Amino acid sequence: QAKRNGRDCTVDYNSSMTLAADEVILLNNDLHHAIKENELVVFYQPIVDIQTGIIVGAEALVRWSHPTKGLIFPDSFLPLAEKNGLASAVDKWVFEHVVGDILRWKEELKPIGDLLFSVNFSGKKFQEPNLQNELRLALGGHTELAKQIIIEITEREMVLGYEGNIETIEALRACGYRIAIDDFGVGHSSFASLQKIPADIIKLDHSFIDNIENSSRDLNIVRSIKSLVDQLNLEFIIEGIETEQQAIKLKHIGGTLAQGYLYAKPVPAIELYNLVANQKLKYKTS
Length: 286
Ligand code: C2E
Ligand code: MG
Ligand code: MG
Ligand code: MG
What we know:
alpha/beta; eight-stranded mixed barrel; 11 helices; binds ligand C2E; EAL domain-containing protein
């Protein structure tokens, strides 16, 4: 299990903050600067096989390392970015950094370089006419990397622009990317999404598992969604697992992937590397 507070960590990344509304407004001017001056940071949260706990990939989650306010969570500045037309720039920045990390790990022959990496795109990003070209440039000739990259878009945003989004998904999948529907189940028309959207992965919103320890009804709902997802030959990732009891219940519903604080919080790249490296050792020796 990942430690919640690494004693030996110099960065206290658990102390990211959520800002009050008035503070958010003050940040407005800084955000443009932040992207240009590389004040953004990519954190990674491991994605594990729920049966074995083995890390199979990681989701990239952006933070803003503000010079005076410290680490700021995306929920505090992405809505602002969205309003100012900067959301696409943030997503581009994150994508490029993830590609950079993967390539570096591959060059150093680190096994972590072969895992899956997931990035989040805003609805706006998804609708950019130049998207494919931008991603191709970011891969810098390493087109084969697309196979290792999952692009997440929330169900809510997906539904907002169905037709164009479906075209984009098909184009991206043709390049090798996998597409995940994020926060599945709490957007609108989840069944219609399943029917219409040619995605590869369903990421179940954490709210479905919050109460499974106490509610067999809730557990049955998760089980049913999983069986639906299985029937459609999609991958399933359950988000937000925090307790061992939840994990035990979920293991009974069969093989699936999972993310959550129980396994690991989002961590800086070097820390992700350590988590993967140590696990390798553990599984080799046991
Ligand atoms: P998301 O994509 O659904 O990511 C999962 C969020 O849940 C992350 O919050 C993660 O830290 C948190 N989480 C993971 N495990 C647990 C758990 O066990 N318990 C609880 N309570 N929370 C958990 P975070 O990093 O604050 O990100 C929030 C949202 O911001 C993301 O939700 C995603 O929608 C958005 N986001 C993050 N990075 C990016 C990005 O680069 N681009 C875009 N467009 N959106 C991003
Ligand atoms: Mg996500
Ligand atoms: Mg999510
Ligand atoms: Mg979310």
